[in-house]
Amino acid sequence: MGEFCLTVQLLLRTCRLWDVNNPREHKTCVKLRGLSGMKNPATACCFGRDGNQIFAGGLDGCINMWDTRKKLVVPTATIKSAHAKNTDIFSICTSHSGNLVASRGEDAIVNIWDTRSLSKKIWTQGDLGAKYNTTDLTFSPDDRHLLIPTLPGGTTGRDKSEGVKNSELKFLRVKNFSIDETTTMKFPKDILIRVAWNHRINQMFFTFASGSFKISYDLLNSHRGALLCHGQTPKKEKPSQVIEDSSNKVIITPNALPLFKTDKPRNKRREELKARLDPVKSRRPELPITAGTAGRVGTAGSTLSSYVIRNLGMSKSVKDDMDPREAILRYAKEAKDNPIWVTPAYQKTQPKAIFQTDDDEPSEKKRRVI
């Protein structure tokens, strides 16, 4: 309870109290004694709801109670002949209020006592057999019902000739100690072993002898838990890329040629993340264009002058609103000292530059006069 847990050691048949922070060494060992003072092998144990009591049942059919606030040597109370002698007690549980304690055993009997007066049973009923010694009992979160996993009536589960394959879950009303058969849950072709009722999400969990696990919930009264996946279709399994023969057996060919080797199985999660980054596999649409102004594409400048300047290498950063004449004249001296295009082409044919003047221009008036 809290930072401690209680277990039954099957080989030594003792109850041991463990500290969860130090699991290598138990804190206390509780040894059961029979009415004659001899050792009594323990078969079941549990904590009280407040953690101040320990209940343990032995092979002699008695149930002992200890107070954890005292030394665990002599029990504070003993329930004599709780179950048949030389039979195992399968389960002991207490109510959430701590006022009731219930037990079941190999003799197919379920008993309930009041913890304030353990001398007399307040309810007992037989013909509630269990096939496995781990079959338990549990109270509902509001202590209104006692959940009893059991076998069909008339079967004990201890005889192999019975061939029991079905099980039931009965709900005992604690108020009037009556079992309503209309609320009984039946599980065909499987044997129920343990039941847990979570009060926060208001859902019940079942474990079966076949190793299966089931959850019961209500669409209106339950919260989260199984409701998070309610109504969702199962994920489609991707086809495996492993070679299989007609008998669906995997063929492993470690010495095959590279052409015939199959890909090694990889982590599907990593493959999905890698494929998401690939624009072709993920089929990513073209990204919107963020450059340019007034609807003009600005991949290399939104104007002709900025396009020429950037592509000719004259400037790495030219603003579109800059005067193109000023941008070119900024590099006039550098172009004169290190000519690249125009000037080297006329070094041989026209080493001296000849420019046209106003006097050389033909005038239409002069031509008319002549």
Describe the protein in words.
The protein is mainly beta and 370 residues long. 11% of the residues lie in helices and 28% in strands. It is built from six helices and 19 strands. It has helices at residues 268-277, 304-311, 324-329, 332-337, 342-345, 364-369; strands at 4-9, 14-19, 22-30, 42-47, 53-58, 63-67, 77-79, 89-94, 100-105, 110-114, 117-125, 138-139, 145-150, 167-173, 178-179, 185-187, 192-198, 203-208, 213-216. Strands 12, 13, 14, 15 and 16 form a five-stranded antiparallel sheet that branches. The chain has a four-stranded antiparallel sheet with strand order 4-5-6-7, with no helix packed on it. Strand 5 (53-58) and strand 6 form a beta hairpin. The longest helix is centred in the last third of the chain and has 10 residues, at 268-277. It is elongated and about 140 Å long. The N and C termini lie far apart (126 Å). The relative contact order is 0.05. The mean pLDDT is 80.
Percent strand equals 25-35%
**Strand/helix succession:** EEEEEEEEEEEEEEEEEEEHHHHHH
Report the structural category: mainly beta
Quick one: biggest sheet? 5 strands, antiparallel
The helix content is 10-25%
Poorly predicted residue ranges:
none
Distance between the termini: 126 Å
Question: C-alpha Rg, in Å?
Answer: 44 Å
| Structure summary, number of beta strands | 19
Mean pLDDT: 80
Shape: elongated
Separate helix tally: 6
